[in-house]
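We treat protein structure as text, and this decision shapes the records that our systems exchange. Such a record has a labelled line for the sequence and another for the backbone structure tokens. The record that follows is passed on verbatim for readers who wish to inspect the format:
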Amino acid sequence: MNQKIAIIGGGAAGFFAALSVVQHHPDAEVTIFEKSQKVLAKVKVSGGGRCNVTNGCSDIDELIKAYPRGGRKLKWAFKEFNTTDTVKWFEDRKVPLTLQDDGCYFPVSQNSQSVIDCLMNECRKGEIEILIGKTVEKIRPLDGKIELTFKDEVLIFDKVILATGGSPKTSGLDWLAELGHKIEECVPSLFTFNMPNESVKELMGIVKEEVITTIQGTKLKGDGPLLITHWGMSGPAILKLSAFGARILSERNYDFKVLVNWTNEPNLNKVSDEIQSIERAHSNKLLANFKPYRIKERLWLHLLDRAGQASTKRWEELGKKGFNKLLETLTNDTYEVKGKTTFKEEFVTCGGVTLDEINMSSMESRVVPNLYFAGEVMDIDAITGGYNFQAAWTTGFIAGKLS
């Protein structure tokens, strides 16, 4: 008799798990249950509608550093299915990918629909049933099988893969806690910083390509591009802080100070030497007319204002006090954060089913036999850059082996 396999969740991890089941168990009867009216919703909006399929990092030791939670335990999993395997998987199915300068892989089409169409086509080939608007109300082990209770029916499966995604609240996973699983507290992970009281918002749209960011009073550190928005700051340098500091910032109720080093040079003495050399070489130029560290004009004028220096002043007129103030502003510019905003439409959570209760070589629950996990329902999340999708592909692939 053919195995009946249920996949709960119609996102990236759920679809990939279903396709892996078909690949490894061709005779299995596979059904995907999605509670909403849409499948692959996050795939659709990812990367501004282009879908950041994965990252170009192929070194597993480096790859796991992108995961504030779960990286160490994913190490073995990535040996089973990694970024290189993901690229090959999609390209073998007529979805060519392109590697961008920032290390992110996107479809050559620059359209997430290419990825969605591929996954849907593969499901049709594998005769995978997809049911939308089907919410699982209860899950129960039953005589070596798994019983799923829906609003209108009760179904029994040989094995079940849970790929329901992250939950905004820990209480959203109470149904798994009732099965005996420990749930790590769920809080937002990838988010941008709101700065309602800071004038920097007036520079919305400006990007500083390389900065270093820190959270005052912590060891948290981010780097990379910083984007100024109409509500505050975003970009990789900020999103890294939000990911690695998810729990700390939640405890602070998203009320803290972020420090920005606009020079991207961690050595303060080197920055000091650079400014002194500018003073000597461009002494007769106005401060406004020589912008160090590739700082754009509007941002440079903003920084001069924060340093209390008139843009009409000449470099030779800076003086020791002005020099020190400018140095401080360039390397340790402080902004008050009051709140957060979800990063675009891509909701990512820190928290979920604790990895200690999951066999990471098979993704099977150590608490409930024949129950498997894939994707963000587990306590796994990453920084932006295709890493979260990679975790979905990897865990889905392994869970689908049903080993």
